[in-house]
Amino acid sequence: MELIQENPDLSAYLAADEVIDHEHPLVRETAARLRAESPDAYSYAKAAYEFVRDTIPHSADAGDMRVTWRASDVLEKRTGICHAKAHALAALLRAESIPTALCYQRLTEDDGSDPMLHGLIAVRLPRSGAWARLDARGNKPGVDAQFSLDGERLAWTVRPEFNEVDYPVLYDVPHPACLRALQEASDRPHLWRILPTEL
Q1: The architecture CATH gives domain 4-194
Q2: Over the stretch 46-68, which tens digit does the pLDDT of each residue have?
Q3: In angstroms, rounded to a whole number, what is the distance separating the alpha carbons of residues 78 and 58?
Q4: How far apart are CA 160 and CA 196, in angstroms?
Q5: How far apart are CA 81 and CA 136, in angstroms?
Q6: Where along the chain do its domains lie?
Q7: Do strands 100-107 and 165-166 pair parallel, antiparallel, or not at all (unpaired)?
Q8: In this structure, are residues 52 and 116 in contact, taking their beta carbons and an 8 Å threshold?
Q9: How far apart are CA 190 and CA 199, in angstroms?
Q10: What is the pLDDT of residues 96-123, one digit of tens each?
């Protein structure tokens, strides 16, 4: 699949905003701590990915009803669904001047029911010249996402027979429909009812 930048200006994928608030002290502090043990952009990106994947539980896996959406809140509260964790990872990567995009998949249950919109990121490391998708959702039995630039190791591979979709567009900001649901949800069960099922 060819990944397509929604914004042709690569610098847009480095920007800070209300969601990917990489100028926040907690984001900066976390990035500095990870950078201290990572001598180059590749090792830093891998460390940031594994930090978000492994130390911030996916709220559904942990039974946490809280809904987070701002990167600094995800880091502070140590919880979030896939979209929130993608925002946190994007902030940590952008904090170290690594272009990072938000991207999406449409997934379903094993029988093709209950479609949902899944959030992940794409990263463009120096000298690579290409975007690579990464999924920091968090591993569990049946899910083994890994940091890989050579071939995708995402949480899920889409199944076209169930109308699952890999959306090729790389967004510099969260998709408005997803962000609105995250911001309006009173808790995670409410979020599941209002989160978009497709783009």
Answers
A1: Roll (3.10)
A2: 999 999 999 999 999 999 999 99
A3: 9
A4: 19
A5: 10
A6: 4-194
A7: antiparallel
A8: no
A9: 19
A10: 999 999 999 999 998 889 999 999 999 9
